[in-house]
Amino acid sequence: AQKVTQAQTEISVVEKEDVTLDCVYETRDTTYYLFWYKQPPSGELVFLIRRNSFDEQNEISGRYSWNFQKSTSSFNFTITASQVVDSAVYFCALSGGNSGYALNFGKGTSLLVTP
Amino acid sequence: EAGVTQFPSHSVIEKGQTVTLRCDPISGHDNLYWYRRVMGKEIKFLLHFVKESKQDESGMPNNRFLAERTGGTYSTLKVQPAELEDSGVYFCASSQLTGLIETQYFGPGTRLLVL
Question: Are residues B43 and A96, on separate chains, in Cβ contact within 8 Å?
């Protein structure tokens, strides 16, 4: 069975600080997909990134970057120079293999960025 | 292009009543998914439609939940009769049908409160 662990329940940082959100996953499948979603206070889930298990290249998108390491089964998300608008709940999710299309979500990390 | 839409945004009902949630996927997306987040818990998969067919309904909690997608366009999720533990946020998502695991795009959710 697939499992995603986001050990950080809540993180609070001051604006302009860098922050890393951890995501550790478990799966016996060799082909799988990892995702990050953002849930701002308005409630919708906003897609951020998708990674397949064969692509371990790290990715950078503006102030966001993702570090995928199969050796440690981790897919961590870093926000550089955080801003108040980054305040949200961030979810890591896993799908593929025997779980098919269904997304298996972590419990989410609530990030609060204060001015 | 319009995103995934869900109706209603909020619903408050009494135990034993019936509620029907509606989801309109992104135009052209043949995959449609329902998820639920109960307070304090992870977002959990309920079921997956491919066009009008139920591809995977392994996450449906019990037979009080009935999902339909007649015509392969919008979907409804009916809870009858509703119980207190059904309270939570119900998310709908859709994705393209390519034979691969595609990114799921989520709607804003329906917040259901059963009193």
Answer: no
DSSP single-letter state for residue B40: T
Query: How much is the mean pLDDT over chain A?
Result: 94
At B59, the amino acid letter reads G
Q: How far apart are CA B34 and CA B48, in angstroms?
A: 7
Residue A92: both structure tokens together: 């890591």
The model's pLDDT over B15-47, given as tens digits with 9 standing for 90+, comes to: 999 999 999 999 999 999 999 999 878 999 999
**Total residue length of chain B:** 115
What pLDDT is attached to residue B98? Answer: 83
> Which residues in chain A have their CB less than 8 angstroms from residue B108's CB?
42-44
Distance between CA atoms of A44 and A53, rounded to whole angstroms? Answer: 26
Question: Which of B42, B51, B92 should be substituted to probe chain A, the one whose Cβ sees the most A Cβ atoms within 10 Å?
Answer: B42
Residue A99 scores a pLDDT above 80: no
- Shortest CB distance from A47 goes to which of B59, B103, B111? B103
Higher pLDDT, B23 or A1: B23
Give B104 to chain A, closest Cα distance, Å: 8
Cα–Cα distances in Å, from B100 out to A26, A98, A105, A110, B52?
A: 21, 13, 19, 31, 19
How far apart (Å, rounded) are the C-alpha atoms in residues A62 and A51? 17
